[in-house]
Amino acid sequence: MVVFFVRGRITRIVFEEREGIPGAMRILRFLFSVFFFGLHAFNATAFTGTYGINYGRIADNIPSPDKVVTLLKAAKIKNVRIYDADHSVLNAFKGTGLELVVGLPNGYVKEMSANADHALTWVTDNVKAFLPDTHIVGIAVGNEVLGGSDYDLAQSLLGAVKNIYNATKSLGIDDVVQISTAHSQAVFANSYPPSSCIFKDGVAQLMKPLLEFFSQIGSPFCLNAYPFLAYTYSPDKIDINYALFQPTEGIYDEKTDLHYDNMLDAQIDAAYAALENASFKNMEVIITETGWASHGDQSEAAATPNNARTYHYNLRKRLAKRKGTPMRPKTVLKAYIFALFNEDSKGGAGSEKYYGLFKADGSISYDIGFPGLKSSSAASSRISLKEFQAGKWCGSYSLIFSISAPILVLLLRL
Predict the structure, then answer these.
(1) Checking CA distances to 191, which of 8, 71, 180, 360 falls within 20 to 30 Å?
(2) GO terms for biological process (predicted)?
(3) pTM of this prediction?
């Protein structure tokens, strides 16, 4: 047995002498697998750290997937979500170490629910075929299905989730690919104050069996939460500083005796309250979308570059603190930002085209500390050299070497 610390947790790996493979050789094989594929292969969660991003592609002018990889690595963003399983993206992510959640679009949900064989084929062709070179760590089945206007689609969601999960299990990848689905705040009947939040009557009957299944397989509750939209709908009732993580009086929830100094925390705790009311107190909430538009229609006066920068800069600082919310202080908040690029082909409100941290040419939309695409390669090289000279390069790999070196010495003496 080998015992060591990874990210503050004790990990024990037991090597049995079986199938003619000596224990020492099994240790060697384990160390090499960790070195080449990373420790996440032994961890079923789909999120590393606290910060991720949504890579939407409803645009005709954004960089190619290989340039996107360069941009993401320069920005040191490891967690990425896409809304489909486009093979050009999956191929570009091969060997990069970036962790990817792929999406099963809403248009496929009914088919996957009705036909388990189709679900198996989809997972085989779009996930299994790319593992382990492309680190696909999750499948998001549909997006904002419950709470929408298509009741037939909503009724099909659970069946699709089960068939996709069973496909991963049949293919032996259920321990590394997490199944989830993201919800909008339209699933809630009320979210103010946070402790009063419950699921809507029309949603609850479909939500509860879905939550039961996710509870069984260890999946989180995924929420798309936008203080920008809440403020835009009610600018006369909401202090914009509260929405932007700026100093403000905040709100006080009398029932829980908790104070909130920002709206995102309140939105998350509203979800926790709804989950607790539905008897799923222990389920984690992960933010799968949150962002602030930098431009918009006349009715979206808060969509400015300055407000977008303020929201994203403060959110990045908030996530870096690795803390929870007032209702769940010990559960570290994790969030995927929306979005990587401005997407010029999106319909709807004017703001829909301007959620990107980066413009179509890869330059920054506003400065929150990320390098743009044009300077990213050189900046990345300088940082890497500086870290290498300081002895800080490849933290996880240096940990592996520090562990493996004495073990290898012992093995050579056997």
Answers:
(1) 180
(2) carbohydrate metabolic process
(3) 0.81
